[in-house]
Each structure stands twice: as C-alpha cells, then as structure tokens.
Amino acid sequence: MKTERRTEIIWHAVLIVIVFLSLYPIFFALSTSFKTLNEAFNSSSLIPKEFTTAAYSNVLQKIPFVKITVNTFIIAGIVTAFKLFTGVLAAYSFVFFDYKGKNFMYFILVSTIFIPFTVTMIPNFITISKIGLRDNILGVALPQLADATGIFLLRQHMRGIPKSLVEVAKLEKASHTNILRTIVVPMVKPAILSIGIIFFINSWNEYVWPSLILKSTENYTLSLALQMFVSAEGGTDIPVAMAISVLTMVLPLGIYSVCQKYIINTFAQSGIKG
Q1: 48, 265 contact by CB (below 8 A)
Q2: What CATH number corresponds to the domain at position 146?
Q3: Does residue 111 belong to any structural domain of this protein?
C-alpha cells in the first residue's frame, strides 16, 4: 500500500509540473501584455507592478488589427468548410459504396497525412506563384485544403453507423443525398463539429506557410502580425508582442474550453475501428 501511495504521489507531482510548464507561457504572455516596456525587460514577475493597457492600444494604432483578424478568420473559415464538406462526402463513399480500388484509394489518401510539410512546401510555393496568388489570402488557404485527416476521422465514425439503416433507406427509394442528410450527418454531427473546430484552430494558428506567401501588412494573419514586433537585433516590443499573442489565442482557447468534450471524444473514438 505504501509503495502504491508513493507511486501515486510521484505521478501527481509529475502531472502538476507538466501542467505548470504547459500553462506558464500563457500566464507569461497575459501578464507581460499589461506591463510597461521597461518592466517587461527588467522584471520576470507574473504580476505587473504598473498595470497598463498601453500595449493593446499600440496594437490597434500600429497595425490594421481588424483587417488582419478578418484575414485570419476568412482563411480558417474557407479551409474548415472545404475540408469538412469534402471529408463528409469522401468518408461516406468509403463506408457505404463498394467499388473497385476503394481500399487502395483510401490507403493512398491516408498516406498523404504522413508526408512532411517540408516536402510539399517548395512545389506548393511554385504553384501558388505561377497562378498569381502570392501575397493573397487565397494563396494561404489553397494548399491547406489538401488534407485527408478529416476523411480518416469521419470514416472511422461513419463505420459505427449500422449499415442496415442505410439499406432500409435504399429500399424506400431514398437518394444518397437524402440518406446523407437525414441519417448519416445527424449521427456523426458531434464528430463533424469537433473535427471542424480542430481544422479551424490549426488554420488559425498557421505561421510558416503564411510567412512564405504574404508580404503586405494588410494581408497578414494574426500569427504574422506578431513578427512585426519581434526583432533579432534587440528591438522587440515585448508588451505589444505579448498583447498580439493574447489576442491570437483568445478565440482558439475559448472554442476549446466550450467544446473540449466533443474534441476528446472524437479522437478517442476514431481509433476504435481499424
């Protein structure tokens, strides 16, 4: 009993340390965003001595914050809507249709999930440049549309739907559109919601690809706006940079806090069936 108790205490301590290390950057950003520039450089305390909202005022004055936020939202919205739409249709076909080469096609699609971004980055950059979408938010969204993660996750959930329901609907002369709309989608709606949230947050936080494509400040995303106040030469405006960080993370954290149950269940259930 003593050994089990000691092990339990150790694991609790480890988990507390992990949680602290995970949350510390958030607390640091939030705290620093309310500090003066001088205090931000000279104090490591998480509690500001001179509480000020000057950093947030500077954000609104120095960059087109509303336009940048709208850019980020449009990109994330396009990516999320397209990936969900194609994911639902593709997953439905893989589960409820029988055709030659279906398993091979599914294997190829899922295999693309494991291709590193660095492999496709240069071909994507050249393609986007040739079609004239550099420094355009559509050029940021377009390569993100090619992702089979949604197909994989939605297929796993649709496989849990009794095929007898679909067969009965077919006997009643229901079209595949009606079957999808009235039977399949309602039964996997929690999965669609949580997968959509994951897609939205991932696109919202994307940094590397937008940094390659976007050059004009008015076309920036929130992640890129941060680099305007971070300099390797020591000219970093830390409070303003942290203010942008806080504003960038507010929406994703808010969405996750409200919908975390659906997100966790989606990943937990997706691995039940191979």
Answers
A1: no
A2: 1.10.3720.10
A3: yes
Half-sphere exposure of 18 (CA within 13 A, CB side): 6
- For residue 94, what are the domain limits? 66-270
Q: Which residue has the higher pLDDT, 135 or 268?
A: 135
Q: Is residue 261 part of a domain?
A: yes
119 CB neighbour count, 10 Å cutoff = 9
Residue 14, exposed/middle/buried by CB under 10 A (0-12, 13-18, 19+)?
Answer: exposed
Using CA atoms, how far apart are residues 72 and 203, in angstroms rounded to an integer? 8
Contacts of 39 (CB under 8 A, 6+ apart): 48, 49, 50
108 with 171: CB under 8 angstroms? no
Q: Is 259 a residue whose pLDDT tops 80?
A: no
Give the Cα separation of 37 and 234 in Å (integer).
13
Q: What is the mean predicted confidence (pLDDT) over 6-21?
A: 89
Q: How many domains does the chain have?
A: 1
**Is the pLDDT assigned to residue 56 strictly greater than 60?**
yes
Share of the chain above pLDDT 90, in %: 39
pLDDT of residue 164: 87
Q: What tokens appear for 167 in the block?
A: 């067969």
C-alpha dihedral sign at 213, 219, 223, 227 = positive
> Does residue 16 form part of some domain?
no
Average pLDDT of the chain to the nearest whole number = 87
Query: Is the pLDDT reported for residue 1 higher than 80?
Result: no
Residues 99/215, Cβ–Cβ less than 8 Å: no
**239 domain residue, yes or no:** yes
